[in-house]
Write a structure and sequence with these properties.
This protein is mainly β. Helices cover 7% and strands 35% of the residues. It has one domain (3-142). The chain has helices at residues 58-61, 97-102, and strands spanning 10-13, 20-24, 37-41, 66-71, 77-82, 85-90, 106-107, 116-121, 127-132, 138-142. The strands form three sheets. It has a four-stranded antiparallel sheet. A three-stranded antiparallel sheet has the order 1-2-3. A three-stranded antiparallel sheet has the order 8-9-10, with no helix packed on it.
Length: 145
């Protein structure tokens, strides 16, 4: 599958249960509307318990809320950043993005970065950068293949 055709894939919350689902939103031709279509459900991110919901800290009260997502440059996976962690959804050759996002991801090592909301990957995929909305910190992960 062509990696670029999934560049506009988004995760949208379901209003009824708080789960996320994968929707493919193709780019419409001039003068034509682009229609999104449902392609699958995303793995359930950890949800807070009743006591955690009372916390004013997003990392505690909203640990499973996605704040950023990016594709690995070689198409081997997707990184999803939440207030509670950084998740890698590996993708095998020929596997659809919907199938990759439906599987349980690998949780990357914990980080101490308040309100982490930005993620970037170097063009070679060797380094991952996280940034905080609250502090001028930048956190770097080195990817081991």
């Amino acid at each position: 599958m062509d990696f670029r055709c999934w560049r506009d894939t988004v995760a949208e919350p379901r209003l009824s249960s708080g789960e996320f689902r994968v929707v493919h939103r193709p780019v419409g031709l001039a003068g034509q509307a682009a229609v999104a279509r449902f392609v699958g459900t995303v793995w359930d991110f950890p949800q807070p318990d009743a006591m955690q919901r009372l916390s004013p800290l997003p990392a505690v009260s909203l640990p499973g809320m996605p704040t950023a997502m990016t594709f690995l440059p070689d198409g081997s996976g997707i990184l999803v950043l939440t207030y509670g962690g950084l998740y890698l959804f590996p993708r095998t050759l020929g596997e659809s993005w919907a199938a990759a996002l439906a599987q349980e991801p690998r949780l990357l090592p914990d980080f101490l970065l308040p309100q982490a909301e930005s993620i970037a990957v170097t063009p070679d995929g060797a380094e991952i950068y996280l940034a905080s909305e609250r502090t001028p910190q930048l956190l770097r992960y080195e990817r081991r293949k």
